[in-house]
Here is the input.
Amino acid sequence: MNRPEQNKKILSIIAALNSDERPFVNMSDLHDAEWPAMVEAIQKTGMAGYFYSLFSQMDAHGEIPATVIETLRKSARRVAAHNVFYESQCAALLKGLSAAGVDNIILKGMSYMQDIYGDTSARTMSDIDLLIHPDDRLKTLEFLMACGYSNYIIPSFQGTPEDFTDLTDLTGEAHFMKKTGALTVNIDLHWRLRARYPMNDYLALDSFPWWENSGTVMIGSVPAKRLSIEMQFIHLALHFAIHHQYTGLRWFIELGLFIRRFGNDLDWEFIYGAASSPDCRKLLGVCLRLIADYMGNSWTGSEVWRRFLPKSSMLPGEYRVYKNCLMREERSRLASYICMPLSPATLSGRLRLMSSFLFDSQGVILWHGSDTRVPKWLKPFYNLYIIGRQLLSVSRA
Here is the structure.
């Protein structure tokens, strides 16, 4: 089975098994599934726990082979053990930061996992995402270093360590890791919530009311601050749209399940007001339309995407690009470069974003560090050269 068809099959099965009309759903997708490839794809998403629970708790009339259930059960046990480790590390981290006087919000991951899936072992935890205040950045860095964490530098970055520090200033986040026995703890530390370069300032995500709209969740025995359900939706949707360019079943399924769980409770007027620009509303609208198309319409507000995504904000054939991205196994550089200028809701916004991408001097540092000097009039050609070289290297891989 080719990957687009496989992704579509997985999504159709999820939609069928989560449907309120499940007894009347045609289950041919289960009968026709190529289960070895399906199980491999599920394991790659890290969601073996979710699919094991989904398949084992429903009446599939014998359409799901027992070997599939058993394979997913074993994978789910490994995920559960991994997440117990991460939960303990997260609890210790939160307790230590609180003692150090660092206010923080836990993002994604465990913040809503229990609410979305019903347990904390449904999908693999790959990192701990934390939002802190910019003024607490140095204090947090000192705390993490004292706990044995080290700063992670992207291997493909060609600049100096100092350049990489400057890059984290640009992105508003840094990555830390620590080896604990055979396992590794990864932390994504955010002191700003920003979009991918060069969309950082364009969407102005730092101006959103993240800190003003939060609640509390227990991580182990430690209370942790998390976003409200409205801000959590905005964060999950923008993360999927901007950072993943609508690619990755794991993130899409989790967003869809979040909507299924909270869609009827969300304050859509608040969300519409918080995402005040037409550009942000468009990104949310694309995500909501994809969810309605692939995850079913079992929540009463499933048509709300029409308000966020007016026809005037989309080019002919644009939505098909996003659907194709969803069907991909991995994010494509070419798709990323296509999605970026398409993101704004107006032609002037698209042109402004493309201009920033071509002429912004930060782009040179992003790719090659401060030692690379490019005359201003050559920057557009240099940036296009970098893009072409990246695309060519991928095609040869």
User: Anything to note?
Assistant: The two ends are 22 Å apart (CA to CA).
